[in-house]
Structures are given as C-alpha cells and as structure tokens.
Amino acid sequence: MATKHSRAASRLMISPAVLLLLGWMIVPLSMTIYFSFLNYNLLMPGAHNFIGFDNYKYFLTDPAFTTALINTLVLVGGVLLITTVGGTLLALLLDQPIWGQGIVRVLVIAPFFVMPTVSALVWKNMFMNPVNGLFGWIATSLGLPPFDFLAHAPLFSVIMIVAWQWLPFSTLILLTALQSLDSEQMEAAEMDGAGAISRFVYITVPHLARATTVVILIQTIFLLSVFAEILVTTNGGPGTASTNLTYLVYAQSLLQFDVGGGSAGGIIAVILANIVAIFLMRMIGKNLDA
Amino acid sequence: MARRVSTRRRVIVTAIAWAVAFLIFFPILWTFLTSFKTEGEAVATPPHFLFFNWTLENYIEVNERSDYFLHFMNSVVISVGSTVLGLIIAIPAAWSMAFVPGKRTKDVLMWMLSTKMLPPVGVLIPIFLLFKNTGLMDTRTGLVIILTLIDLPIIVWMLYTYFKEIPGEILEAARMDGAGLREEVIHILTPMAIPGIASTLLLNVILAWNEAFWTLNLTAANAAPLTAFIASYSSPEGLFYAKLSAASMMAIAPILILGWFSQKQLVRGLTFGAVK
C-alpha cells in the first residue's frame, strides 16, 4: 500500500521535468519539420506553399553544404585529437609529484571558464592579428613574414581556439581518472620488472579508456554545435572556408531569412547529430557496463 | 604510499609543468595585462610586458561609455535565474528517481541525456519565430526559459548522482526512532542533500554564464548578457584592444573564481557521474 502511494507521488515529482523536456523536444522540432517543407522566406511575405522535399534538395546539393560537413568533421576531429592526446600528456605530467601542484592545476584549468566570445576575440585580435598580434611580432622578430591566420588558415585557427578552451576539460577528467589508479598495482608491476612503457601500455591506458570515452562523448556533443567562436572570428569565411553545419544553418535562417531552407538544414543537422549520438551512446554504454 | 622520486627529477618535472601551465594560462594573463595599458601601449611593437604605465582608465571608460552594468546584471539574472528555476523542477524528479527508483528510471535518465544531443540549430527557427511573435525576443524572461530547458537534463543528472549517494538505511533508522516524514525531510535528507545541490548550482551558473548560442541569437540591446556584449567588440570600429581586454576581464573574472572552487564538481557534473 505504501509503495503504491509512494510510486504515485514519485510519478508526480518526475512529471514536470519530463513534460517540459518532452515539450521542448517535440513542439519546436515538429515546427522545424513542418517549415522545412514550405517555401517560406521572411523577406517575401505571402502564401507559404508546400513544396515537398525541395528545400532538402536545395540544401543538400548546395556546395556550401559539402564544405560545411567536411569542416564540421575536421573541426570536431581536430579538436578531439588535440584535446585527448594533449590532455593525456598533461594529465600524466600533472600526476607527477611537483611543487605547487595546486597552482599549476588552477592555471591549466582556467581557459575552460572563459566565455567563448572572449576567448575567440582575444585570440583573434591579440594573438592572430598579423599587424598587432603577438604571433605577428614573434614572426617578425624571427625575421619571418607575419602570417594572417584567420585569412589563410581560418579553420585551423578556429580549431586552435576551441582546442584551447577544451584542453583543460579533458586534462581535468583524465587527471581525476589517473588519480584513482591503484598505486599498489603499479608497484607490484614495477617489482615484477615491468618497465615504464609497458606499465603505461598495460595498466594506465586500459585504466584511462573509460574516462577517454566520456571525454570524447561529451566534447563531441558540444563541438558539433560550435558557433560563437566562428561568428566573432571569421563569420564562417573567407567564403565558406570556416563554416560548419551549425553556422551554415544559422546563416541560411537568420541572415538570409530562408525559414524553409534553414529548417531543412536544421533537420539534417539533427539527423547527423543523432547518428553520432547513437554511435557514441553505444560506445559509452559498452564502456560504462564494463 | 607516496612514490619516492629523486629531488633532481622533481625539479625538472616541476619546471616543465610550470612552463606548460604558464603557456596555457598566458592568453588570460596577457588580457589581464593589456587591460591596464593605454590603447597606444596595447598595440606597441615590441610589446610591453610589465613595464608600462598601469592605468585603470579602460575599466572606467568601459563602464561609462556602455551599459556595462546592465549587461552584467543580465548575465547574473539569466544564469542564476535559469539555474534556480531548473533546480526547482529537477530536485523533485532527481529525488524520486534516486529514492524510489522504478523499472523505467534508467530509461528516463538516458532519454533526458539524449535531449542534450539535440543540436540547437534544429530548433533555432521555431524558437526565433515564437520569441518574435510572443514578445519574448530580447527579454531576460525568454532567455531564462530557454536556458532552463537546456540545462535541465544536466541538472537532473547531477542531482541524481549526488542523491544516489545518500544511504537509504539512514532513513529507515530515523523512521525506527519515530521520525515522521516531515522530520525526515527537514532534519535528515535536506542537510545531506545540500552539498550536492550547492555544487549543481555552482556548475550550472558557470555553464549558463558562458552559453553563447541562444544568448547571441535571441538578444539585442536590452537583454544581452556579457557573451553578447563582448561579441559586439568584433566589429572593426569597436576594435580597441585595451578596452576589449578590460571588458573581457570583468566578464570572466567572477566565473574564473567560481570555477576554481568547483573543479571537483566540474568533473562529476559534466561526466554525468561517470568519472568521479
């Protein structure tokens, strides 16, 4: 009797959260699907007639889409590579006995708390600007011509900025995982004559597998939607050289006021994100059960 | 047992670690230094690192020339408001999932996590049009609503992992001693739950403070929080390095300080309890 009572109460306690999230998922998403089949541009008032899959055809055959898709993959992949490899190395470094470990940690973790617009603008102006930036000054004092990062390597520059923001995250998580490593196991292996490399390969790496999976999963969710860094540095350009899928849909929707086309792009982004999500959830599910 | 290492090795490792940490932190340090320079010194070649005329001019000017305080308050209201609202909705849900788990609790939790994977551009247009037509555009209320919905899954997950750690036996013991439901909640559960709720609050304020998709797309002059205000410095006519630096420092300093206190919770919270 008590259980029946408490079960009803618990349903009542969960329902606001569930209903809100359900509404958040269903209402706007079905509106996006609906708009994606309409010939609907905010600049052209009048009838929004049904045009079937034309918006999708238009969006998918636009050369900008292919570029944006590749850019998205390169951006996500590049940042993941830098942050997981760099994060592992940094975590191993910070796990050593050093003086002032607390302060070092605080310094390393700091970029994660810097808002995207600030970090993007600081990098863009004070470092990457060929005339007034520090990189330009370093190049000139070495006798090299200054390099205009955002004009000639826009995607690479965005990757560097985003990687700088996310490196602390992977480092912190991998460091937390390293610190939970059983030191007796390590000592036992050492006594049995295992060298530093084989200890790393056979004990540390398997131990970090789960944390690495988590790092990849969570970063991917956020990295697929990188937006502010592109908006304030390159505006997706030059041309579409640094446009990712998120930025392309934004440009189609809010710069060209193409509700139909932007919606089709949004749905395509949702589908692609879901493919990644299913893949990742399966991977993390396997790792979490183990 | 602490690993024994030679002093020499420790010196070398310490030096490397400090050098790397300095490099990673340098952009923030450089912004900090530039914020105290005059505009002329900010772009001087070769750059002045420490020996320049330190001035507070930029901080004063940013505050006087723009509505800095308004944007700062927008950030505070939006991040704290959405977090508190999220907590009010999430606490009962996480509570009952942790203490009265049903058959579907795991599924509900996974489903909530999956809503986090919905890319914001998938719902950009409907939200934009809804905001335009209902007058929510460029209002604090509108952003509080959106950020509450976005943060809700993380808030529920974080609270759930904290509540899960409160031992259920303690409740039974209290019940045996004759405590009623009211006493149970007030004297036993609440004190044990407060640290978890506090860390959730802290982490979410940080995330909401730095959120830069919806805040950029749904605000203009009135409700723009600091993320959007700083973005206005990207236009060429607004390109003053020293003032940009001063505005940036004021925008990141509070969260940097909060963040340093929340390192542990950050790992837990953002990995949904998978790494502790």
UniProtKB/TrEMBL annotation, chain A:
Transmembrane segments: 12-37, 68-94, 106-123, 155-178, 208-228, 264-284
Keywords attached to this entry: Cell membrane, Membrane, Transmembrane, Transmembrane helix, Transport
Keyword match Transmembrane: yes
ABC transmembrane type-1 domain: residues covered: 69-280
Topological relation to the membrane, as annotated: Multi-pass membrane protein
NAD in keyword set: no
Gene3D superfamilies tied to this protein: MetI-like
Matching InterPro entries: MetI-like (IPR000515), MetI-like_sf (IPR035906)
SUPFAM superfamilies registered for this protein in UniProt: MetI-like
Location in or out of the cell: Cell membrane
PANTHER family: BLR7065 PROTEIN, INTEGRAL MEMBRANE SUGAR TRANSPORT PROTEIN
Family the entry assigns: Belongs to the binding-protein-dependent transport system permease family.
This protein's name: Sugar ABC transporter permease
From TrEMBL, chain B:
Lineage: Bacteria, Pseudomonadati, Pseudomonadota, Alphaproteobacteria, Rhodobacterales
Record's bilayer topology term: Multi-pass membrane protein
Protein name: Sugar ABC transporter permease
Transmembrane portions of the chain: 12-33, 72-96, 108-131, 143-163, 184-207, 240-261
Subcellular location: Cell membrane
Keywords in alphabetical order: Cell membrane, Membrane, Transmembrane, Transmembrane helix, Transport
Keyword Lipid biosynthesis appears in the UniProt entry: no
Domain of life, source organism: Bacteria
